[in-house]
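User: Second chain of the day. Same drill as before.
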Amino acid sequence: MALTPTLNERAQRLADHVASQAAALRISVQTMGNGTRILDCGVNVLGGLQAGLALARICLANLADVTLVPGDVMGVSCPLVQVTTDHPVLACMASQYAGWPISVGKYFAMGSGAMRAALGKEELFDHIEGREQSPVAVGCLETRKLPDAAVVDYLCEALKLPPAKLTLLVAPAASLAGNLQVVARSVETCLHKLHELHFDLKQVVSAFGSAPLPPVANDELAAIGRTNDAILYGGRVVLWVNADDEQLAAIGGRVPSSAQPDHGEPFAAIFERYERDFYKIDPLLFSPAEVVLCNLKSGRSHAYGEVLPKVLARSFFGGE
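Assistant: Same format as last time:
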């Protein structure tokens, strides 16, 4: 059964509140000449941790709690970004997953958020619930440049909505808010990996995830490396599922990032080895370090993988 209101309406309600707190969150709100609302969370503004938490929650269509809790990497204080949801597939896969590459002229951004559910053209939506018709659309763009009228025209044509019904939140990974919202994807990466392994995501009932928040990098390439490492080597996810234990035992060991051959060194080094081409990297690498599957049918838990704090320290702090 589809949730009411829609994912996009849920995201818009939270975006409205965030816009009303722009000064406190150190973000800017502007309305383009065509009526589209842009929330700059880190391109031309400082943004902050609270802006990052809000950005992550909007990416999740406000169907998950996102918080910062104490943590450390090799004894160095490092907050954990913690995600909790009772609607993991809708929140993480139908909304948060960055499944819409947006390329218009020289402009490029990775698009995520509930607007993907309104578009509904990804093959993923043939396997999960989430496609919707909504009177509004809300999207999050990971990029260093605010969208112009041509980008908005492209999005509105695809979404079949007038520009005034579109809200876009923008932040690069190399910013306080953007850094945090990327690391808030521990559960999402786990669910996507399970989907790629042909596990029926309808069996996933609830989810909890955490990953360490890296220092904000001073360029996008470094930011991509650190945020990927946060999940690959520090992400820990617990899923509550209704499944057969035999099925979980057969698939569980393939879910953590350690199941892939490239696992074990900072992502920046992996990226360089593949000539900075994401599409040459095994997509199954992108998953949390540790996964626990709690079976509600049997009461048994299945744990796989482990965190690698030494790799995290090299990535975050230049340690050995």
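The first strand starts at residue 28 and ends at 31.

User: Great, on to the next one.
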